[in-house]
Amino acid sequence: VQLQASGGGSVEFGGSLTVSCRASGIRFSDGTMNWYRQAPGNQRELVASMSVAGRPRYEDSVKGRFTVSRDDAMNLVYLQMNSLKPEDTAVYFCNLVTWNRSDWGQGTLVTVSS
Predict the structure, then answer these.
(1) What is the pLDDT of residues 29-87, one digit of tens each?
(2) Interstrand relation of 45-50 and 32-38 (parallel, antiparallel or unpaired)
(3) With contact defined as beta carbons under 8 Å apart, do 50 and 77 qualify?
(4) In the 3-class helix/strand/coil scheme, how is 29-55 assigned residue by residue?
C-alpha cells in the first residue's frame, strides 16, 4: 500500500491551490480519507475528511474555503484550497483509515505568502 501526495507549492495570500493524493494497493472508497497538515513547530492537525459514503467534513478554520473530493475511477483524492492565508502554510498529508490499517502519504508543502 502506498499513498503519494502532490501538488503543493507557493501561492500568495488569497490564492488557490489543489493538492492531490494517489493510492496504490488500496482504494480510497474502502475507508475514511483524511487530510492533515503540520505547520513548523505545531502538531499535526486534521483539516478535512471524507467518509466511505463520500460525506465531507471540515475543521472550522477551513470551512467555506477548502473542498475535499474523491475520484473513485482514478483512485485519487483532492483538497482544493481557496482564499489561502499565511496561516495555511504547512505540510499537507493524506491519510486513509480502513477497518484494519492506517496509511499515510509523504506530505506536500504548501506555502502562502502575505
Answers:
(1) 999 999 999 999 999 999 999 999 999 999 999 999 999 999 999 999 999 999 999 99
(2) antiparallel
(3) yes
(4) HHCEEEEEEECCCCCCEEEEEECCCCC
